[in-house]
Design a protein that fits this description.
Blueprint (H helix, E strand, L loop, with lengths): L7 H18 L5 H9 L20 E2 L5 E2 L2 H11 L6 E5 L5 H7 L4 E6 L2 H14 L4 E5 L12 E6 L8 H5 L1 E11 L6 E9 L2 E10 L12
Parallel strand pairs: 3-4, 3-6, 4-5, 6-7
Antiparallel strand pairs: 1-2, 7-8, 8-9
Length: 221
Amino acid sequence: MTEDGLPDDETAAERKMRFLFALRSRGVTDTRVLTAMERVDRGSFVRGLFAERAYEDMPLPIACGQTISQPSVVGLMTQALNVQTRDKVLEIGTGSGYQAAILSHLARRVYTIDRHRRLVREAQETFRDLGLVNIVAMAADGSFGLPDQAPFDRIIVTAAAEDPPGPLLAQLKIGGIMVVPVGQSDTVQHLIKVTRLETGYDYEELRPVRFVPLVEGISTE
């Protein structure tokens, strides 16, 4: 029983319903994305003081001065990515691992990179605990992507760049999609969907966002 006198499973079910309702009300309507987000418990990726707020639709601090993104933004980015079951996906910015875990339920394989070794280690532990075997996480400079595994069907960037990074665009398959926050400051950013065409790239502006900056190099942490 909880302090409210309700069974634990009942409050968990209610919490899940509120969580999904918040996603739908903010524009996450793709059934596959909602199902994946229902299967991935955000509470597994939030530690310490903020664990009790894991099911609120808000960004939260994690280690290394980074954040776990707002669930509705995760959902909208995933929805825009339009991941298919045979896709190979590259994520730049592992963070807590929450986004990669959701992608793992939609794609064939997910490669995720972060410049913070600590975040990669903790995410790897969480992936193992959750039995997510189709995620490869590594510490590397995400601004250069992962050329050894290119090309990718989908690329998602969870840190803001001044422009869509050239090395990442080059690692996108023809017909592939990249979703990336773009902006020159942390106050003016827009989420951009890039589709690679035979003749170049198509850019679609989706919505204002706010992300930590994409930083070159590998951290000592």
